[in-house]
Amino acid sequence: MNSMHSSIATGTSEGAWSQAWRRFKSDAVGVWSGITVILCLILVLFTLLGSLAANWEKEVAIGHAPPSWTLTDSDRIDASSGSAGSLPNVVLYEPTPTDVVDPIAAQWELAQKAVKPAGDQVNALATHLPMGSDKWGRDVLAKTIKGAETSILVGLAAAFMATILGAALGAVSGWYGGVVDDLSNWLYNVFHSIPGILLILAIAAVLNTKGTMAVVIILGTTGWTGTYRLMRGEYLKHRHRDYVRAADAIGASNNRRMFVHILPNVSHVILVQFSLLTVSCIKAEVILSFLGFGVPVDGVSWGTMLTEAQNDLLVGKWWQLLSATAAMSIFVTGLSLLTDSLRDALDPKVIH
Amino acid sequence: MSAYVIRRLWQMIPTLMGVILLVFFLFNWVGGDPAYLLAGLFSNQEQIDSIRAELGLDQPLTVQLWIFVKQVATFNFGNSWTTGESVASIFASRLPASLTLMAPLLIIETIVALVLAIGMAWVRGSSIDRGTMVVFTALMSVSILVFIILGQYILAYRLGWFPVQGWSEDYWKNISTYAPLPILLGLVVSIAPNTRLFRSFVLDEVDQDYVRTARAKGLSEPRVMFVHVLRNALIPVITFVISNLPGLLLGAFLLERFFGIPGVGREIILAVERSDFPVIKAVTVYVAIATMIFNLIGDVLYRLTDPRVQLR
After folding, report:
1. Residue A224, Cβ density class (10 Å: 0-12 exposed, 13-18 middle, ≥19 buried)
2. Closest CA to A141 of A60, A72, A48
3. pLDDT at A162 over 90
4. What are the Cα distances from residue B195, in Å, to A29, A160, A315, B245?
5. ipTM of the complex model
């Protein structure tokens, strides 16, 4: 009650962020793309915690089992109760009896028991799955979800690294000017004069280690230039504004003015840049993994799935390609549309 | 004007030194000792020492840097580590294939994107405009790999309209048989981002006073859009296309790889796979130089076509 009174008394106006939120809420495309992105991120979180797609590497179906929705009713009957192919859903596992004297029989039996005790239930391999299976009988749907985890996390981490690098360098460069600015500009010119994809490949060549961390480092160290240029411009613009000079007058330190006073006023630029970079990093990760410079073969990402999908397609198995492509398009389209809406909502100069 | 060009060339020197330092740092420090890479798994110290001496790796870092600067200045990067072919001849022999593919692609994609951009700017704000933009965003979110994989599979492998892959010595055979499908796929991939960009260039022009004057004179809408607006929107388009020329040479590396085209892009991928450092070093330095020069050409052309722009 008290706080309400005081806000009326002082006539607090609506803050920039709540204004932006109000603008954002009125944009249907933005809201729906936001929901899509959040759902995808929740999915990634569940995968990360191991409650989803944890067993993606397990052989759960016959190789190249088709997606269930492609089967007609007659196919289904054939598969479940056909004359020859009567596959029960659950079979009892029995070690094979042998009459030949086997020198390692005793140890073999022990080893067998250690792996699977006799009488244990073994799931028969499925003949169809919601999104089919790959060459080794792994569930494509689980693989896609696990691949989403890798691709999205790599994209977010690399974009985070690039944004932080660019924003910090841009802020320092625009704020201090002088030699710092000259040096940073020189570094920017150097990185900017080498086409992005070439720099990525050159760093991939020298790192010569495969793995998700390598991809994050490659994309993080090459992607900062755009954010740097924008942030430098923002800090140049803001450092002589009245509010910053007022902060100086009351004795705020350099760091305080840079990060407490100016940073909140330019944070929308950082947010939009982060979102744009995530999209480009996910796309780059897919290509790097496809070329074999990214996620190693024992891992799974949308890029490695596309590599396998290319070979699958030659034998007419299209579902892995469809699955990875659809997942990637949903997330990337959602994020791109969200970025457009965020930019419109956060920039008060855009006429609505 | 000449003073401007000279100053810009002068300003390139520190950037070029930076590029050389960056490449040197990457390949001589981050990359580790290439002698171990070259000598292979089963090598003795003697072999490694002789390779190090041959590459100048036993020298102090400053001497090695000086060797590298001399290599850049004399266009002599030595030989490829894997094939022994000289780096210069690798590029001379791979460039024609890349150009055969990229030159028609560049011309077609620029014209198509420009026409589409003007068309979309014409109906700006309508449901067609907004719908197309959403479709383009969705198209851009599909990986370039998917377009190439599907295009090659459906159009070449299944329907047999094009050869699945291949390249020949004969220019006309290449341009008529092997190049059309890669060019078509390159066009599909580039049309969405280019149209979006060019549309924003056109939209910058449509609200200008001269456009209103042209309409007030009673000119037809096609004449306003395709003569008055187009001529002005063309300026940033030309600058964009020219400054992107060097990068374009590499941009086709996926197309070259999928379709077995022996171009520069495929060569770079092979070099990265084989840790063939001289090739990658040479490409990085020269493409950076080319990018700087083409940026300058773009800026100068901007000045020549738009007298309002003042170059300082």
Report:
1. buried
2. A60
3. yes
4. 21, 29, 36, 17
5. 0.82
pLDDT higher for A246 or A93? Answer: A246
Q: Which residue of A has its CA nearest to B149?
A: A310
Length of chain B: 312
Query: Are A306 and B268 an interchain contact pair (Cβ–Cβ within 8 Å)?
Result: no
CB contact under 8 A, A201 and B272: yes
Angle (CA) B295 B301 B303, round 5°:
110
Min Cα distance A328 → chain B (Å) is 7
Tens-place pLDDT, residues A182-219: 999 999 989 988 888 888 888 888 887 777 888 898 89
Across the range A162-191, mean pLDDT stands at: 91
Give yes or no for a contact between A338 and A33, defined as CB atoms under 8 angstroms apart: yes
Q: Do B284 and A194 touch (CB under 8 A)?
A: yes
Nearest to B291 among A195, A207, A208 (CB): A195
State the smallest CA–CA distance between residue B280 and chain A in angstroms: 6
Cβ pair A283:B143 closer than 8 A: yes
Q: Best residue in A183, A191, A194, A289 to probe B by mutation, most B CBs within 10 Å?
A: A194
Chain B residues lying within 8 Å of A321, measured CB to CB: 146, 149-150
H or E element, residue A292: none
Cβ–Cβ contact A131 with B under 8 A: no
Of A52 and A144, the one with more pLDDT: A144
Report which DSSP code applies to A352.
-
Q: List the single residue in B31, B149, B251 with the smallest CB-CB distance to A313.
A: B149
Quick one: tokens of A89?
């859903």
Cα-flanking dihedrals φ and ψ of residue A105, to 5°?
-55, -45
Q: Compute the C-alpha angle B64/B69/B71, nearest 5°.
A: 95
Predicted TM-score (pTM) of the model is 0.81
Spatial separation of the C-alpha atoms in residues A210 and A206, rounded to whole Å: 11
What's chain B's average pLDDT?
82
| Rounded distance between C-alpha atoms, residue B256 and residue B185, angstroms | 12
